[in-house]
């Protein structure tokens, strides 16, 4: 009897232990199931979604160039009279303002212009007085019609000569010291070919000064023959210089020449850019980054949505409500913040564009 009771007790104990173990096993399964990562509908709504688009892929071309003045805002100052330069008041690189005197010249021609002007003014006064006197005599019958017409003609000729002499004086500005060489616009002195005591001839083919307004400037770019087909007028560009490596100047291709330079076999392109604060100076070296169309139509997606792991690129694709999957992709090229995909995506696909690394790490386990 005692033996039977002992066997029954052991059976009950084993049964209880088995139930306890089974209960623990189910508890572990429930715990594992509860802690497993799941993508919920609310999580999807909290993330940024980028829709894949088909676009003409861009290519980046890096070229070199140099800063040059805008030819439409630049003037060359030539001598209008001969003489000897005195009081050259400006140096290369100086800032000048419209109407400012750049130099004074002692000029015999200018003395002759002044004499002509003074003489013409005197003739105008004399012929006017004669004309008025002849009118009075004609009214009194003491002068003929011919005398009146002659006096009027002399007066008109004197007036015309006075206007001519005045125009010459107004063009050739002078003061008590001599002929004044003035700048017709505000800007920088970018060329200077005059010093004190230089003898200047009126037929001199060389300009005395070049003044340039640098509020806008050109970047002259050398385009290699292999890159000619990749660029066109209107392509946006970004420009950096050695002087301001952290500052980016933006512009567009303004003009492309149609012939190659026979010396270095490059074609020249011109970019017009704004120059705030006149930071860019003529002659500066420039690095030019051109974004040009490559002619390929590839799916385009934000480069921020890519996940790089084990030398491969991946994206998280949304394929339904609260359903996502990891998709390997092949990136053809990346231009700034856009990635062009050659394999793995098609236009219309939706990819996760925020917290994608976190999702990738959670989904791949």
TrEMBL record:
UniProt keyword Signal present: yes
Gene Ontology cellular component list: cell envelope; membrane
GO biological process: copper ion export; plasma membrane copper ion transport
Protein name (Swiss-Prot/TrEMBL): Efflux transporter periplasmic adaptor subunit
Pfam families documented for this protein: Beta-barrel_RND_2, BSH_CzcB, RND-MFP_C
First and last residue of the signal peptide: 1-27
Alphabetized SUPFAM superfamilies for the sequence: HlyD-like secretion proteins
Domain Multidrug resistance protein MdtA-like C-terminal permuted SH3 residue range list: 311-355
CzcB-like barrel-sandwich hybrid domain span: 74-213
InterPro entries found in the cross-reference section: Beta-barrel_RND_2, BSH_CzcB-like, MdtA-like_C, MFP_Cation_Efflux, RND_pump_MFP
Keywords: Signal, Transport
Protein family (similarity comment): Belongs to the membrane fusion protein (MFP) (TC 8.A.1) family.
Any one GO molecular function term: transmembrane transporter activity
Transmembrane segments: none
The UniProt record lists the keyword Mitochondrion: no
Residues of the CusB-like beta-barrel domain: 216-293
Organism encoding this protein: Mucilaginibacter xinganensis
